Amino acid sequence: MKARAYSAALSLPPMAGFAQFWGAIREGLEGVLDLQPAPAARLEELALAHDEAYLHHVFNDGLSRAESLRLGRHFSPELLQRALHSAGGTLAALEDALRGGLGLNLGGGTHHAYPAHAEGYSLFNDVAVAVAKARAEGFSGRVLVVDLDVHQGNGTAVFFQSDPSVFTLSVHAQHNYPQLKERSDLDVALPDATGDAEYLAALEPALEHAFASRPELVFFNAGVDVLAGDRLGRLALSLEGLAERDRRVYRRVRESGAALVVVGGGGYHRDLRLLAAARVQTYRLAVAELREQAGKL
Fold first, then answer.
1. What would the pLDDT profile of 279-292 be if each residue is shown by its tens digit?
2. Residue range 15-38: average pLDDT?
3. Cross-strand partners of 259
4. Where along the chain do its domains lie?
5. pLDDT of residue 226
6. I need a labelling partner for 291 at 20 to 30 A (CA). Which of 61, 108, 281, 284 fits?
7. Catalytic residues
8. Is the peptide bond before 178 cis (omega within 30 degrees of 0)?
């Protein structure tokens, strides 16, 4: 049986101008993954992690103009639905991971959302919600968040700063958003234009440190905005360097025996063919490197 992967793009109409992009992703993953529509996260699931007053405000009032500016997007019912399906995809991937070792969400990775406010294109923090859901359902093992999006996972860092059972690693561009960084358990801040060799040299000891926490469940934010030329990135990885980044994460996961949830994170390259190729590569490598886990789903 093929491994499953969830996509909000299959649950909702594709965003304007992105139909061809998602078509390329579906074509690239055909025969490798069983693509499924992402379900919508429920309010009670979001409330396991997010502040109740914040959720009441979002669902009943929406966001004010100032709050929308902080989010970086105009709030609308359609945006709320996309956020719910994005988070729901991660919750569905969590179920797959806890049952069979590997769970895949083509979306998610909204790591800038805080417990009580939205920012940086992130309305809900899907990984924080997923960890809370796992705990609520009886999972008591150690968790590792490997966040390799080009932007620091500031919201995720805040969610888990006082939780010794969750280790947060963020490898990001030093001078990129957010301007004020939060404290992860391990932050690796890289200078502008860092390329493949320098990036991988910094990544290896960071992964060694992070996996020394002996996780039983790993969340991998596989943002592809580290690619050279990304509109919102400041690093300079090639497609080949990105592949090696992902392989190193997957090998560590395989060696650790931990269950893995992969979430999409950011990607804002103007070349949509390159962006789609990067996305496809990340998920195809997950199956190739973790074939045994993928075969159980």
1. 999 999 999 999 77
2. 90
3. 217
4. 3-295
5. 98
6. 108
7. 112
8. yes
The single-letter DSSP state of residue 9 is: G
| Residue owning tokens 């993953």 | 29
Beta-carbon contacts of residue 117 (< 8 Å; ≥ 6 apart): 54, 67, 70
Tell me what percent of the residues of the chain surpass a pLDDT of 90: 92
How far apart are the C-alpha atoms of 29 and 242, rounded to whole Å? Answer: 18
Distance of CA 17 to the CA centre of its chain: 22
Question: Going along the chain, which residue ranges are E strands?
Answer: 3-7, 33-37, 102-104, 143-147, 166-173, 186-190, 217-221, 259-263
Evaluate if residue 2 carries a pLDDT over 90.
no
Task: Give me 248's structure tokens.
Answer: 């190193």
| Total number of residues shown for the chain | 297
Whole-number Å distance between alpha carbons of 205 and 76: 42
What's the pLDDT tens digit per position in 172-192? Answer: 999 999 999 999 999 999 999
The whole-angstrom separation of Cα 105 and Cα 163 is: 25
Give which of 243, 294, 232 is closest to 269, Cα–Cα. 232
